[in-house]
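Both lines are retained for reference:
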Amino acid sequence: MRQWILAGCTAVWLALPAPARAFPYEVHTRTLENGCELVVVPMPSEGVVATAVWMDVGSRNEVEPGRTGYAHFFEHLLFSGTETLDRAGRDAALLKLGIGDNAWTWLDETVYTGTSDTESLDAWMGIQADMMAHLALTPDHVKRESGAVYGEYRKTQASPDFHLDQALRRTAFTVHPYAHDTLGYEADIAAMPGAYDYVQAFYERWYQPGNARVLLVGDVTPEAGFALLEKHFGPWAPKPVAVLPEIPEEPAQTGPRSVEVAWDSEIPPQLMFGWRIPAANPSDPEVAALSLAEALLLGRAGRLPNRLVREEALALSVSGGLEPTVDPGLFLVHIELKDAADRARVEAIVQEEIEGLVKGVDPAFFARTRSNARYRGLLELDDPENVLYVVGDRMRRGARAADIGAFDEAVAAVDPGALGAAVAKHLTPEHRTIAWIAHGAPAEPETPAPAETPGGASDAR
């Protein structure tokens, strides 16, 4: 149910089953002397291994003025070639090996993935390790790829969803870099062609072995997997860097906020709600309870789509969910309305349904929803790529190897009382930001904006 705008892909934080043992595979870890963490997860996959180099750097780390978008920019630049294998040579090598690779960037990470047969795994890991440790950038590489990034940004400008999302984020966050999208601000993107020196510094700062987690999932033993990864990633030498910039802590939100966006063409009006919630620590029972609240509110049988789309026919669609961020983030609800005149009614229904979770959920509905949250992912755990994403995602958010299934067990343990307590604590008007987009000029607010509402509470396009 969770879907977010990423740099080129969709991320899903899977809710997995929670039987007696919630996660059915052994997760083996080892840390090399250079600080690189290795993760090997053997599972039946008949000669197939899913791989990832999971870099702990995303737009969350972009705190310097004028330097947003560089984590995503680097996702493009890393394919520029190395001292021994240029881009064309890399593409040819992967074609010969039969490997399709991919990469994506989000708020908290940049991930380079691929799927290999066991016979090609040695060569594939050699190519990946070379790319991480020996990138050979030129000013021409930076200029060429900055054009591609700017083109990607321009495509988003035709999307009202994108503008609504961005307006909500920069209103909900006042100092934390979650305020900006992974693509970055347009002025910063426009300046990228001349930023060769900063790009080199970014590479040396963040593309360090101690900031990396390399995962192998599939038809591989721990012994063979660790030997292979140590062979290729062990020589990755740390680079001397200055002190890393500190990520500012977002102050507590103590009052409702709102922002309105004008759109110059006819579109269905849209509302987006964002409540400030804790970091997505897999061991936090409140996060498990909020994950179940997502299923109750927004799942296929959730109260909001049932009421707004099916029962009262006020909305065309309802989506959203808990964003699994490393730092405190947002619980989102995105509603596409049929008629702007129904805005107040829709806002009231959202509040009523949230209060309903606090007052008490129908026991049968609660039991069915929790059961679905426990078991719906079980059939997907026969795919190495799905298992890789679960392990990588949860380890990035603080889970230890032995505790990958702890989150699912916590979801299974949530009762109506724990659910109501978490919702009453976090999904409150005081922690809420509302963004609205519709054709025409922003409406005048009926009441003065709260004192803590950030300035510039409307974004005319």
User: Anything to note?
Assistant: The chain has 15 helices and twelve strands. The chain has a mean pLDDT of 90. Residues 400 and 416 are 28 Å apart (CA to CA). The longest helix spans residues 139-156.
